[in-house]
Specification:
About 25% of the residues lie in helices and about 25% in strands. By secondary structure, it is α/β, with parallel strands linked by helices.
Length: about 550
Amino acid sequence: MVRSTERAEGIGRRRTGAVCTATDAVSAVKDGSVVAISGFNMANTPEYLILELHRQYMRTGHPNSLFVVTDALPATPGRGLDIVAKDLSQRGDGRFIRGITVPFFGFSPWLQRLVEDDVVEAYSWPMGVAAYWFREVASGRPGVISKIGIDTAIDPRKEGGKVNGLAAARNTCTVKRIMIGGQVYLLYEAPKPDVALVRASTADRRANLTMEDEVIRGTVLSMAQATKAHPRPGIVIAQVRNLDRGEAHPRAVEVPGPLVDMVVVSPKKYHWQVGSKAYDPAFGAVGKPMQMRGQDTMDPVEMVIARRVLVGLAEAAKKKGAPYIVNLGIGIPALVSTLAVAEGLEDRIVTVVESGQWGGVALPGVDFGAAVGPFALSTMPDMFSNFEGGIIDAASLGFLQVGRNGDVNPSTLPGRIYGPGGFPVIAGGSPRIYFAGAFTARGAKITIARGKLKVVKDGEVKKFVRSVYKNFFSGSQALKFGKEVAYVTERAVFRLTPTGLELTELAPGADIERDVLGAMEYKPAVSKELREMDHALFNSGPMRLAKRLGVEAVPW
């Protein structure tokens, strides 16, 4: 294979695609276009194209009135769409982007500001629904039909996915309740893309796109197909790092060249694998998972919570007697994969991430979505089928608020617009859910020593509240479909029952009245079989779970 970061001989204008400058490519985007942009944080994000599209607008005033549709969030703080949002927000400019639908705003503080100030209309659907939507539109269907979102903030009886006042007024994207076979479903609809800005590693002489250096596969193919679908076939612009004079192996091709109109070679600085690093061959590489973050470097409170989740998963895996498939959300749940490797359970407990990773060690923070040492990479629509269809065995997700009836708000507060992310699809489809988080927030001081926990100073913010600010997980719906739900913290564990939360475990050293019941806005039931959390959770060093539970690695 011959690669070049320059325009390669023989890769000129042809029937399938043209190698051109970023300026020439974005000049093809017309005013009023619906623009699909790939990207999960910085993974698969065509940052060069995003920034050049904005520069073109600043130079000429065109294109303007764009409506952006995404499958996740093509940004991290100070990168990608966040840079554009900063400029638009500071100038109060609503002409360049008139609207946007984004599943997760959390890693773009300026996009949050832009939305909160009502400069652009904003919608937020669950990530899996957004990924499916491209595939459905590509197939000529009107949108996505799903049970995900019923009785949550996404339900049209509440907010219907509209994030701000402009969205409520304009109603460009809609969520409707429909009946099929006597059951309620939600229909998600949005305007079809006219343009797709996508990213890959290499384009060959036919403009076939391969992703050998990308950490995820994302929704790139479905975005290209949705853009090319009738009745308005649009244009697909691909950002790559390399050009290949030859032809890629057919099985390596992610997007066939006939679906690609233009190819732009990006400078390295605009083509990072993840938010913190331009390139690391271990990201997405097949092989034995590495321990990226050892137990000795974890926050002690977070480690207790992640350990308790791991114990529950190990016990369930032992009962199943086969590899146990578990989705891990961002934050504390992502630490479970590190602990599973440390305990030698990575073959028994197979962790997956919504971006498409199978196995390995999930990376935290702005690198979330990537993993070291995965053994397989699915596309995002395919991975979310595993969630919504209940194909996975369990999920562990974070929480910001838990209501008295088990409803969960994962991330949103007044002035803090995060959106649902992948949370509703994962929580809505998984048969067993471990919500994991600290008991209180802001300023808590907790010590852990000699197998016991002590709350020296509690957090200022209670997280177990009478009614959550935004509901993205319905406790009543979970009970209706027979899900097993636990809420794991450093000082207590609860389970969901038909009458609400029930306290089942208390940390050694914690006072039930002062540290648990007194730190909640409501009184949960207390189990008659209330027991202490395992002292091993609070000790340093490996728990040796495999030996304690009699769990051995499963041969594949």
